[in-house]
Amino acid sequence: MSKTGREILEANTVIAVVGASRDPNKAGGSVPAGLQRRGFRIIPINPYADTLFGERVYRSLAEVPEKIDVVDVFRPAADAPDIARQAVAVGAKALWLQLDIRSDEARRIAESAGLDYVEDECTAVTSSLFRINKQAAA
């Protein structure tokens, strides 16, 4: 059985954001920035930017040179199955589809490979609701 969103965020730190946005007014811009402020390591994935949130941007999950815990998806549901396959290929622990994004196929791909799976839920809301903060104690 898949872990809850809360359990996933409490247990992991490195989040690759597929569909990270240059626009801070879009969810793909504001949510990752908020997660970063809570101490999560954000790895932006966007084919049209070089730097977001003060981090190097990668064109695809396959280009990321470090271990990814959670793949957080800000793309249309039609893109989710391919992103799920990429998440499996890079060894991510969880696939998270943001609010209003659902995909039975992405769920099957992720769960059959042993990834935890969340859909139609916002990482920012979950991290705020449960006061999940990765910042080291002073």
Write a structural description:
The protein has 138 residues and is of the alpha/beta class. The protein has one domain: 3-Layer(aba) Sandwich (Rossmann fold), CATH 3.40.50.720. It has five helices and seven strands; from the N terminus they run αβαββββαβαβα. It has helices at 5-11, 27-37, 80-89, 104-112, 123-129; strands spanning 14-18, 41-45, 51-52, 55-56, 70-73, 94-97, 116-118. The strands form two sheets. A five-stranded parallel beta sheet has the order 2-1-5-6-7, sandwiched between helices. A two-stranded antiparallel sheet has the order 3-4. α4 links the parallel β6 (94-97) and β7. α3 runs parallel beside α4. The N and C termini lie far apart (36 Å).
Q: What's the story with the biggest beta sheet?
A: 5 strands, parallel
Count of domains: 1
How large is the count of helical segments? 5
Instruction: Please tell me how large the radius of gyration is.
Output: 13 Å
DSSP strand content: 15-25%
Order of helices and strands: HEHEEEEHEHEH
Query: Which percent range fits the helix content?
Result: 25-40%
CATH class placement = Alpha Beta
Low-confidence parts, pLDDT < 50 over ≥5 residues?
none
**CATH level 4 superfamily:** NAD(P)-binding Rossmann-like Domain
Mean pLDDT: 96
Q: Tell me, what's the shape?
A: globular
Number of strands: 7
The side-by-side strand order for the widest beta sheet comes to 2-1-5-6-7
- What is the third-level CATH name, the topology? Rossmann fold
Structural class: alpha/beta
- The CATH architecture can be named as 3-Layer(aba) Sandwich
Our measurement of the CA-to-CA distance between the termini, rounded to an integer number of angstroms, reads 36 Å
